[in-house]
């Protein structure tokens, strides 16, 4: 049986990458007040920023239902495919558990908890898609091979503005005030499926990004050099260039892929957030 890879919009892959690797995406739900949207379909990060500026309110995000996942999976299993679903961390969203429960009711579906978010999920989905494209592996084999890489996904970000984290209840008012006053830029690390605060940097975002990238490469120093992602909610060209230059100076990645986060991820991290993400296991079988 042929294998199809599915994921959610929170994998933050560009349309070009989704098309190239034939990954099927289920958009998560985003609400701005009483208006409901589908992430990546009819809402984008700028809509989030505009809403926050106008109202001071944050978006609400929601997982898709078990029935939604059953519909997605059945669409392809009915055509004779096996499905491998790569989901956002079960510690951060109900999405993965809903996909897992749906898979119990649809034959030939295998789910993988990435324990990550954004292009950490995307990197694993692309790997699974490459395995599927090779035609060498069953869905169950792809699931098992992808799961072996989960502990090595390096996903981290520099947070440019603490307002969203504060209003979303993810840091205290005092911490937010102090960080903004001192221009402190904390790094956020995804570890064991959860978020933790990493090293803190001081100064304008464009000045600290190079230091952040170098620190990440020194700490997580066994990358799969096939590809690395620069993923941002919003960023100036100078911020993106600073991250790209640091990766180019490192000199070992074959591909540097630049993507913008979708509305779901943006709704939690806010403006001027930029991350570098890769799988830190030295490479794996295709």
Annotation keywords:
globular, four-stranded parallel β-sheet, Rossmann fold, six-stranded mixed β-sheet, 286 residues, Hypothetical Protein Tm841, Chain: A,domain 3, 25% strand, alpha/beta, 41% helix, 2 domains
What do you see in this structure?
The protein is α/β, with parallel strands linked by helices. It has two domains: 3-150, Rossmann fold; 153-279, Hypothetical Protein Tm841, Chain: A,domain 3, CATH 3.30.1180. Helices cover 41% and strands 25% of the residues. The protein is built from eleven helices and 13 strands. The chain has helices at 15-21, 45-55, 66-77, 95-103, 119-134, 139-149, 163-167, 173-182, 205-219, 237-250, 263-269; strands at 3-8, 23-26, 29-32, 35-38, 60-62, 82-87, 109-113, 153-158, 184-191, 194-202, 228-232, 256-260, 274-279. The strands form three sheets. The chain has a six-stranded mixed β-sheet with strand order 10-9-8-13-11-12, sandwiched between helices. It has a four-stranded parallel β-sheet with strand order 2-1-6-7, with helices on both faces. Helix 3 (66-77) crosses helix 4, helix 5 (119-134) runs antiparallel to helix 6 and helix 9 (205-219) runs parallel beside helix 10. The protein is globular and about 55 Å long. The two termini are 18 Å apart.
Topology, please?
Elements: E1 3-8, H1 15-21, E2 23-26, E3 29-32, E4 35-38, H2 45-55, E5 60-62, H3 66-77, E6 82-87, H4 95-103, E7 109-113, H5 119-134, H6 139-149, E8 153-158, H7 163-167, H8 173-182, E9 184-191, E10 194-202, H9 205-219, E11 228-232, H10 237-250, E12 256-260, H11 263-269, E13 274-279
Helix pairs in contact: 2-11, 3-4, 5-6, 9-10
């Amino acid at each position: 049986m042929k294998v199809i890879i599915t994921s959610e919009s929170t994998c933050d892959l560009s349309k070009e990458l989704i098309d190239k690797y034939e990954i099927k995406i289920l958009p998560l739900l985003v609400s701005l007040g009483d208006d409901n949207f589908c992430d990546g379909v009819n809402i984008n990060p700028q809509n989030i920023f505009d809403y926050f500026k106008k109202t001071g309110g944050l978006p609400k995000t929601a997982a898709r239902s078990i029935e939604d996942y059953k519909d997605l999976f059945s669409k392809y299993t009915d055509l004779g495919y096996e499905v491998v679903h790569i989901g956002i961390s079960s510690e951060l969203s109900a999405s993965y558990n809903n996909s897992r429960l749906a898979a119990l009711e649809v034959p030939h579906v295998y789910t993988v908890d990435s324990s990550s978010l954004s292009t950490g999920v995307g990197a694993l989905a692309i790997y699974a898609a490459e395995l599927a494209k090779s035609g060498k592996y069953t869905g169950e084999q792809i699931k098992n091979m992808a799961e072996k890489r989960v502990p090595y996904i390096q996903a981290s970000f520099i947070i440019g503005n603490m307002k969203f984290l504060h209003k979303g209840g993810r840091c205290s008012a005092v911490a937010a005030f102090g960080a903004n006053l001192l221009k402190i830029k904390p790094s956020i690390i995804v570890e064991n499926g959860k978020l933790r605060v990493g090293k803190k940097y001081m100064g304008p975002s464009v000045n600290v990004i190079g230091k952040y990238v170098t620190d990440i490469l020194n700490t997580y120093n066994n990358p799969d050099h096939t590809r690395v992602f620069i993923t941002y909610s919003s960023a100036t060209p100078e911020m993106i260039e600073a991250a790209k230059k640091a990766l180019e100076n490192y000199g070992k990645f074959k591909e540097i892929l630049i993507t913008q986060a979708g509305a779901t991820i943006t709704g939690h991290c806010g403006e001027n957030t930029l991350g570098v993400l890769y799988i830190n296991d030295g490479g794996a079988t295709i």
